[in-house]
Amino acid sequence: MYYAGLQAKIKEANPLAKFVPCSAHSLNLVGTNAVDCCTQAVLFFDLLQNVYTFFTASTHRWKVLNASVKGLSETRWSARDNACQSLNKNWSLIINALNLINNDDTEKTLTRNEASGILNKLNNLETAFLSIFWGQILHRFNLTSKKLQAVNIDLGVVCELYKSLITYIIDLRSDKNYEYFKQCAIEKSKIKQFQSCTKRLQIRKQFFDEGPSKETAVEYSDFKVKTYFVVLDQLRSQLEKRNEKYENLLKNYNFFFKLTEMTSIKVRKNAEILQNEYKDDLSTLFANECVHFRSHLLSIGDEAPKTIQDMCGVLRKNDLIGMYPYIDVSLRMLLCTPVSNCLTERSFSCLKRVKTYLRSCISAERLSDLAIMYIEFDVTAKIEFDDIINEFATLQSRRKI
How far is Cα 69 from Cα 94, in angstroms, rounded to an integer? Predict the structure, then answer.
């Protein structure tokens, strides 16, 4: 792709063009890779889908459940969060419903066997542990993903959000957090032992001249080593790998976030590095301009803008673009760097609902107008549709007359 595909063609046209992966899609790939890294995680999400499929296959089973369960989706990672939340919320109801169906002699043998199989998988400490663990992980990932899809987000915010998730994962990777999740799972499932093998560490025999014996019974669980730590390590590795790409893109702009904290010499040096990268867009006066802008922010004091968008807003609000023209150019270059394409993809996906097989004769002009109405939904929602309907009805009545 990079050497012979679209990226290579764009690079030929403009060597300064940089590829920016969609931050929201990258976060979804982090979760996908973490799920596929160990058997227990794969089996757990298969169980989630099996629970959903079993109860939605029959209105009678859904009535027995009397609760809501969610299924998985290959394209929407947020569906996994919804599935975990529904399982945690309705844990006892799901088990009770499966018990009722399993013990009901009027049910088909196949149905009872299927209910029994799902029930056996739910009635173990591993499943309860993973439901709590993944429920918390996916909830944080889902909320972060929604923030990454915002229209007014920039590279600086993306790096902050990825770093926050990395720190969050590092904090979870400890024996204390493992014991916390385990205790919660025991209270939830009423089961105190993992089905996976639990072993004792072999202790070397001590001789009489080695001092008093300090033999202690030390246990370790295969589940902690081969599932809990593996999933967290994979999440951290994938997050750091993708965050590195965004940090490299932001590297030459980092001094803008610390203008008031840096000395004028450091500001000048960092500005020269950025100017050398974009010689055709930024003048040699750019470094001196940045030093002056630093002094301007210091004069404002506590009200000085902290984000790139706020800096651009100050330049326009106070009519300072004439004073700092190249700073305005550099800030707009950073703000125009796309960090997410989710909203754009949704606009194209919406066209499939607008132009269906039965509407294949719709003109290009009308289709374009409908697309603009969807993209600019904030403006469209403020339109009084009653006036438009009345006007349309009046036109139609005149035609009939």
Answer: 9
